[in-house]
Design brief:
This protein has 287 residues and is an alpha+beta fold. It has 2 domains: 12-201, Jelly Rolls, CATH 2.60.120.620; 215-285, no CATH class. The chain contains 9 helices and 9 strands. The strands form 2 sheets. Strands 1, 2, 3, 4, 7 and 9 form a 6-stranded antiparallel β-sheet that branches. It has a 3-stranded antiparallel β-sheet with strand order 6-5-8, with no helix packed on it. Bound molecules: 2-oxoglutaric acid. 2-oxoglutaric acid binds at residues 90, 92, 99, 104, 138, 182, 184, 195, 197. The site of 2-oxoglutaric acid has 9 residues, from β3, β8 and β9.
């Protein structure tokens, strides 16, 4: 990336959202006809090229080098990010069943090795057609990149409170934390749903925030990291999850790191009911 081109970098607020939820959607302004060109090439492929996607589909480079894509990846992984070997063209034909919930395995990492307080690896998923609710969108569990669960437990789960579906318009790019829980859902329509996935990694720790940072935003970011819970958490998880969110910020923010302890976090009125502490609930519920 041109290090002076800051127009496509994420903001502090978008970085906070990514830390909290584990995903970000880009709608790059692709050239007219681009998604159709990709769909036609995919339809013409005699078989799945496996991880040799760029060789089989050179036009995909235009997406991977799009300034909005580069700006997002550089913001989350630093300007020296790399595309890893691997990737896959996911073709979800009509009338197929859902996949079980899973986290992707990479580099022999097991479920104990997850980066629950850092952003080191990302997945990029590009949808070259509109994806409606009946076409087998990808389902994600926001915030689950901080949860560690054995794969054999995860596959027994079905609908999870807070899950979101990638019902997106043609050309959308979903960027997720590599450890987010996800699955392809059943395609009940008569249309093929394509999704092309690529893995990316950080190569260097940041010394400064590589995104569009402004120190004046820190109080608002802190408020969000302390108090926004993307999915239903047990009371114990409320306490650990907000600390993991702050630690994630600190691991990517370099000199813009913030104190781990929040003075305001546990103080305030006595709780009226179970769940979050009153202080964090009050902050979350503020208009
Ligand atoms: O097809 C999808 O929507 C998701 C597939 C996927 O990410 C996977 O198999 O790991």
């Amino acid at each position: 990336m041109n290090r002076h081109d800051t127009s496509n970098l994420l903001s502090d607020d978008q970085i906070a959202s990514f830390i909290i939820s584990g995903y970000h959607i880009i709608e790059p302004d692709l050239a007219p006809g681009y998604n159709e060109e990709i769909r036609n090439s995919l339809r013409a492929m005699p078989e799945n090229p496996g991880e040799h996607i760029v060789e089989a589909l050179p036009a995909i480079t235009r997406l991977l080098e799009h300034p909005a894509v580069v700006g997002t990846l550089a913001s989350l992984l630093g300007p020296d990010y790399v595309r890893d070997p691997g990737g896959h063209i996911h073709m979800n034909p009509p009338h197929t069943r859902a996949q079980p919930w899973h986290q992707d395995e990479r580099f022999g990492r097991s479920h104990q090795d997850r980066d629950i307080d850092h952003i080191k690896h990302l997945m990029l998923m590009y949808y070259p057609q509109d994806v409606t609710e009946d076409m087998g969108p990808t389902v994600l569990l926001p915030g689950s990149q901080r949860r560690v669960a054995a794969p054999e437990t995860m596959v027994t789960l079905v609908n999870l409170r807070g899950q979101v579906f990638s019902t997106v318009t043609s050309g959308s790019v979903l960027v997720t934390h590599a450890d987010i829980w996800h699955a392809g859902t059943g395609n009940r329509s008569d249309k093929v749903r394509y999704m092309i996935k690529f893995p990316f990694s950080r190569t260097q720790e940041n010394t400064e925030p590589p995104w569009g940072h402004d120190a004046r935003n820190i109080p608002e970011v802190r408020m969000r990291l302390d108090s926004e819970h993307p999915t239903t958490l047990s009371r114990n998880e409320y306490e650990t999850d907000h600390a993991l969110r702050v630690r994630t910020w600190n691991n990517i923010a370099g000199t813009a790191a913030m104190p781990l302890r929040s003075e305001a976090h546990l103080g305030g009125p006595w709780p009226e009911s179970g769940g979050a502490t009153t202080a964090s609930r009050r902050r979350r519920d503020q208009p």
